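Example with several molecule types.
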Amino acid sequence: MTNDLQEIHEECGVFGVFGVANAASLSYYGLHALQHRGQEAAGIVCVDENGQFSRVKGEGLVTEVFNVKNLSTLSGSSAIAHVRYATAGGGGLDNVQPFLFHHHKGNFALCHNGNLVNSNEIKYYLEERGSIFQSTSDTELLAHLVRSSRMRGDNFHDDPVHPLLGPIRSALNMIEGAFAFLVLTPDALYVMRDKYGLRPLSLGKLNGGYVVSSETCALETIGADFIRDVEPGEVLVIDAEGLHSCKYSAFNHHYMCAMEYVYFARPDSDIEGINVHAYRKQSGRILYKESPVEADIVVGVPDSSLSAAMGYSEESGIPYEMGLIKNKYIGRTFIQPTQDLREKGVRMKLSAVRTIVKGKKVVMIDDSIVRGTTSRRIVKLLREAGATEVHVRIASPPYAHPCYYGVDTATYEELISSQLSVEELCMKIGADSLHFLSHKGLYESGNRCELCTACFSGNYPTSLYDNECKKC
Amino acid sequence: MTNDLQEIHEECGVFGVFGVANAASLSYYGLHALQHRGQEAAGIVCVDENGQFSRVKGEGLVTEVFNVKNLSTLSGSSAIAHVRYATAGGGGLDNVQPFLFHHHKGNFALCHNGNLVNSNEIKYYLEERGSIFQSTSDTELLAHLVRSSRMRGDNFHDDPVHPLLGPIRSALNMIEGAFAFLVLTPDALYVMRDKYGLRPLSLGKLNGGYVVSSETCALETIGADFIRDVEPGEVLVIDAEGLHSCKYSAFNHHYMCAMEYVYFARPDSDIEGINVHAYRKQSGRILYKESPVEADIVVGVPDSSLSAAMGYSEESGIPYEMGLIKNKYIGRTFIQPTQDLREKGVRMKLSAVRTIVKGKKVVMIDDSIVRGTTSRRIVKLLREAGATEVHVRIASPPYAHPCYYGVDTATYEELISSQLSVEELCMKIGADSLHFLSHKGLYESGNRCELCTACFSGNYPTSLYDNECKKC
Amino acid sequence: MTNDLQEIHEECGVFGVFGVANAASLSYYGLHALQHRGQEAAGIVCVDENGQFSRVKGEGLVTEVFNVKNLSTLSGSSAIAHVRYATAGGGGLDNVQPFLFHHHKGNFALCHNGNLVNSNEIKYYLEERGSIFQSTSDTELLAHLVRSSRMRGDNFHDDPVHPLLGPIRSALNMIEGAFAFLVLTPDALYVMRDKYGLRPLSLGKLNGGYVVSSETCALETIGADFIRDVEPGEVLVIDAEGLHSCKYSAFNHHYMCAMEYVYFARPDSDIEGINVHAYRKQSGRILYKESPVEADIVVGVPDSSLSAAMGYSEESGIPYEMGLIKNKYIGRTFIQPTQDLREKGVRMKLSAVRTIVKGKKVVMIDDSIVRGTTSRRIVKLLREAGATEVHVRIASPPYAHPCYYGVDTATYEELISSQLSVEELCMKIGADSLHFLSHKGLYESGNRCELCTACFSGNYPTSLYDNECKKC
Amino acid sequence: MTNDLQEIHEECGVFGVFGVANAASLSYYGLHALQHRGQEAAGIVCVDENGQFSRVKGEGLVTEVFNVKNLSTLSGSSAIAHVRYATAGGGGLDNVQPFLFHHHKGNFALCHNGNLVNSNEIKYYLEERGSIFQSTSDTELLAHLVRSSRMRGDNFHDDPVHPLLGPIRSALNMIEGAFAFLVLTPDALYVMRDKYGLRPLSLGKLNGGYVVSSETCALETIGADFIRDVEPGEVLVIDAEGLHSCKYSAFNHHYMCAMEYVYFARPDSDIEGINVHAYRKQSGRILYKESPVEADIVVGVPDSSLSAAMGYSEESGIPYEMGLIKNKYIGRTFIQPTQDLREKGVRMKLSAVRTIVKGKKVVMIDDSIVRGTTSRRIVKLLREAGATEVHVRIASPPYAHPCYYGVDTATYEELISSQLSVEELCMKIGADSLHFLSHKGLYESGNRCELCTACFSGNYPTSLYDNECKKC
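Resulting structure tokens for the full complex:
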């Protein structure tokens, strides 16, 4: 499934440091741990004690964008940093975050994970008032909303100590969607998370300063101690005095994106107190209980489905085997095989291990099915390698509704589960049997009572604005 | 002198194409011909028949920024392009032009050669009205002024066919300084030159379309036919219907920057009808008449002073010799010699030819003296190579006043001619005699009655705004 | 252990194609599948139907060395290719294989996996006869031995059809050690494996031509059908007529390097008929039987120990958990943390998952211990993450003797198991208990009666020449 | 002519340092000054006080091959360095000099400017004795000849202090052609020039050590004092004791390549006591005396013909004008215009200055004509720019015979002057008149009694071996 989802979804990772020496280096290692959340572009903005901002950003992996030379141009003890998944919005380098804005009242930098659902409305509103944009990113919108806040008659009064706090709260009340935003000024780091709690953001402590990160694995990597998650609707201001917290909205839910548990996050991260690997393994156990099968071996589709496959194996007693291998050196500089070579049998990314699957009844565990083409290909690989039966078990419900909190380009037509019944899909991917995890199992795997399951259920926690019509 | 001036001055080159196939390739060759005007960064924006903009920009020479791959991503028959001299404004890539702006009423791109004198005032005006800036470039200011024009109550009415014409004329009336601006929309190329005529801009015709360029050498390079210069204060709109011309101001002079003739422009360019090489050669002839000397050979400082040196040689009958050699492969990737190596005699850029100057009385011709350090170094080089006398003749008057139409960082302290008399300067650079071209000679070299000679005379054609106080 | 072994061992991968269209592209994908065997350098040499050789080689990963442009310069239907582990021999690019030799009797290319034990003797012999060397590689030695064969009075007569066959057999009889050699001429691909069978080499069939590879995973990747392993002591000539096989020596054993099963090879490869993952899983099962322990979870050190850990888990019934995470994006362009940052807690490559190991008794499975420093670090990581007990089980016997068939720089001093008893080592790495797989278990895991276990037992299958004295 | 000659000729530049701190940096600046002799590849080998060799080499300009990082890996006070013109011999990086050889009796490095005429014979001789070659360069031949010298029964006895001196003298006696060779060992720098004196090589002194260079301009650049030229047939050994000189042959002439004066060398270099600019200027004066013309302006083809044009102008009194401009930023990364664009008028490299040549009778001075295509193009450029007459004067005799001392691929067919009479050629290039400098003028320009004028006269100073038959 991995590939399908990669093509339609945009996830990003944000990372911030306040008041810790070597903020740029720490950001580099932090971004590295978040690399799985975005492999298309990366950037770091630092600010030093004199209020001087410095920035390095570029397209490519963290190790491609940064080198000893350009990293050494970043100085100061505060920084924000970003990895981006896809080229959504286009525009190349202009859309690479963090953004840096110059203003006679003080420069500031900004980066963001998530997706706004009313960005078209906001853009129109701002352009009508004279704004012009150099990118197509939601992040630039927020900067304009913040700077134009005084022209709006809302009730967010200026805080003399944190002059951006009022404008930021005003701006956040105008936007709708999923986000984790970081704003860096020479004096403070502003950290905010949407009021629905759709995107993860965690806070840690390190050497007397603070660190924020989309996932806890980055805190662990740099040796920071986890403090707590940033709360839905919270605006956290970190400055020399410490932490200051307030809310931008009274609304408050924990509709964490279920796909973070299912696919996006790194297995060693904890999201809202639940370890991702543990969640996935539990989902595999529940999956077996819901849809058992007689088979010789359990095989997971690497890498995101391995935990669920282990859970299925342990619950069922069917041995877990490494029947599929992922070639891990594939990156953006990899030369894709031509159609001609692919047809002649050149297989990259995934291969089935003949010696292991030959003559076996296989349970193949995957985290999800989006378009179905990948599943079909893997079933075929397993059969060609000699599997006598292939039973597919998916550790999440059918993905049948577009997500507007990641990338808004997905349509119902692209989602195979909105087009076919499970039986039809089973036939299409060529499996002997096919079962999905139930919605109930999704919640139970993490003992959660709230989740965003919009892509499975069609229940969107927010208004959808101009996406609304796409629903029909 | 070359090096001195390089350090304090910022010149740029602009190039535009409308309605000619392969606009991107033509821009590449055009920028190449303008490379001497800016070696720090380059960029091209194209727009195709569907209104899609594409852009490539980067730091470095034209041959470093563009390659077959990225050039092939630029499609369409219209383009604007830019080479930039120095990193004035800092900010690296963010300041590299052309800029590209997204707007629901239509995207547009913009680039610019010159310098505004009231940019601080304009920036403050715009930020107070909600604008925020991602660069420190004058070009971004113009974009904001254009987009905010409706909020100003001026008398520039909308032109339904060229919707940007009114806003552009409104914006141009708010800025003061030297400029040649290009604005590209999907339908038209807007071309404008400041009302003082400080910066050159020429118009040509090619294969049924139009080309504009800071210098005519770029027209020649791509095989375009020169039509005429863009007039001071003119706003030229080029669209599918052809050329449309109007003025943004009734003020109208031809205060062409004298340094364009003396130093900036390529010798094969014609500026306002006068060939640059011919101008320089004539200035050398006048220089001899004004300050003759008995000597064995005439030596010009390469490359910009060679024409003047030839004129001096022909008028005087003293043979012109290649007594100084410039190493032409020096670029930004060149590793500068350490102080230690320089002291041990490693000489890059310029060397004197011992066999030629040994035992000779030398007239050394240079185009100008800014800080005096380069002249002193060259005189020393010539003496070390055995010259018995070194008489320095400068093909322009003493450079004694800062220029605010290039880079505004120059101060009186940096300009040696504002500190020392000609006699003192002669002693400082170690010459046997020193003479400068007269102001009269400057005008006569080109048979001109108007020129901007602010850097020589202190007579600035514009108000200076916040630079005013620096004059005292 | 991974890191320890990486530092002292040199493994390489060889790949060859004869008579298949797109030999260069196939080699690219083949090398990709062998990337785990060598990440420091890569090269491909092709020969076309006109006998023209072309080559691309460089330092770095396969995806770094090759691009569409340079790959397109390689044409022909035959190729040999190489990935190299470390910079053994130094000399940078000069040592990157394949080598290409020009000779008036015909050019030829050569590459090699393994290590000769009598290379110093051979080098002296050749230099005394006028040879000079541009690299420090064993591969260049073989080329000189082949070309000088006529000067030796041995009994290898010229084969008129395969003119290099006699010289190659003569040359192979002079060298001693572990090797898999490929020699490419315009007409034939010569494939040879040492008479001890120390290094793997497999033969496959594809589209009417042949493919050879250090591991079968590369055959699978390009869709080739496995035929058989190349035999110890075999010289295989592949030409337009098909396969021709002979032996260069009557000696014939299958002392396959045990570490290929334990650590080097990819789990989906089959070596001499035994799947590597299956071998490792079986070794984990035997390891449990030999040294059971009461614990809450089994954790494998990624990536090479995961199969053994699963075997241990299945045999013991103790759940297998993902308690250690390896950051997979680390490559050569990665900026290593400074000592200062490492001390402050920045952890790259491996991290322990606190939520999983906290409060647990952990069985940590690793494939081997070389210097002990990595094991000690991992035990510490687990304890810091809250493990209450850490029991270390190693899926191979103590590594106590230098290997001269990989890199000959290892010394007894570097091998912790030659210095300390198991009890002392247990204390040194800070484990609660430590057990190694028995020698018997090593053979049983693969049902093999022959293996090279020199690094465990000190029983070297070959003479050691000048390495002999190092034994004492 | 410039382009024509570039395509058929291979010149290189060598540079060496012995006993001066920062040998690598000095070599970098030295190569830089020799960059005009070879723009395709560059390399430096250093040796330090411990006998450790280090090397950096690559394809491209000096500024492209070297950077601060790789230059810092080169340590020691002795070095040899090389710039190479073309990819003669092919094979890419393998042919980039200097070469570095490993030998148990001592490593050594070697580089070379020139071309051997009996390389095929030598190669066969060596291969028959067991040598194999990794490049197609003459330089590798010399290394093998040196190392195999003991097997030859010649009378060059071993010098115990300079063990390579005997073998080098033996080797030099076997080769025939044009060369300047440098051999670097940990203890000494061996410097040798062919006995005909075909290629230049000069010796200088710097900070107690020595420097050698193909041209004196590199000595000047690094601040070294010129001592003398290396003599034809001389073998100079530079070691800690100072200079040791001997001859490898009793033959001794000064057949310096005339094209060094006419085209190759930098105008500020002195070759065998004659300044190149002065030579060229004098050739221009003689050219006028031999073939005067009535005209309005003299125009030289940049860059190599400017000195001759000035001489012609001074002798004739016809003003010298900058009627042709060369775009100096063109390098290997430049994207050549497509045929389509060239036909539409895109002109790179050279353009004519319309304002200067329009309505004028032009004398166009070029240094030579090889194929005639460039001359024809320039005449056309001048006419299109409005020249009423174009009289071509060439500052050397007709180039009618292949040179075997540069690149041996040139054939009579390629040389237009071996095919057409001067009158026919005049018509072909479209000039109003055409005259060449006489053979006598060639010698007189430098007051020389010996020169190699083989390309003009067909009198080759050496035997031609297998090139012999090409003469007919």
